[in-house]
Amino acid sequence: MNTIFIQDLRVETRIGVYEWEQHLTQPLLLNVEFELPSPAPFASDKFADAVDYAAVVARLQALAADHPHKLLERFAEAVAGIMTGEFRTPWVKVRVAKLAPIDGVKQIGVAIERGKRS
Q1: How far is CA 116 from CA 12, 63, 80, in A?
Q2: Are the beta carbons of 60 and 32 closer than 8 angstroms?
Q3: Taking the CB of residue 88, how many other CB atoms lie within 10 A of it?
Q4: pLDDT tens, 3-43?
């Protein structure tokens, strides 16, 4: 399996179950690992054969900017859907965490995997 990873992407979004959380942006830390749809770029060295990870980052930033969902679980599922749908990755692992959401806690988050690994 050939994967690309995007580690520690910090995004700002509105997320939370409490009323006050839904009116302000909070930072999330996002980690995404995904399988490439094809092994072609390893042999061809052509950008056209690769997944444009700058486009992936831009798309995930856009999702966060317009994502007023309540749960991290739903946000993670939306990220996975973008990866498997728009970028056609056969497998994706998503980790998303709120930063310092509770006194004494550095991060709280969720991790999901979607699709099938080859």
Answers
A1: 30, 24, 12
A2: yes
A3: 12
A4: 999 999 999 999 888 888 788 888 999 999 999 999 999 99
CA distances, 43 to each of 3, 47, 88, 97, 117 (Å): 15, 11, 20, 35, 21
Task: Give the phi and the psi of residue 56 in degrees, each rounded to 5.
Answer: -60, -50
Structural domains in the chain (count): 1
pTM (two decimals)? 0.92
What domain range is 72 assigned to? 3-115
CATH code at position 31: 3.30.1130.10
What DSSP line would sit under 44-111, residue for residue?
Answer: H--GGGS--HHHHHHHHHHHHHT---S-HHHHHHHHHHIIIIIS--SEEEEEEEEES-STT-SEEEEE
**pLDDT, tens digit, for every residue of 54-73?**
999 999 999 999 877 899 99
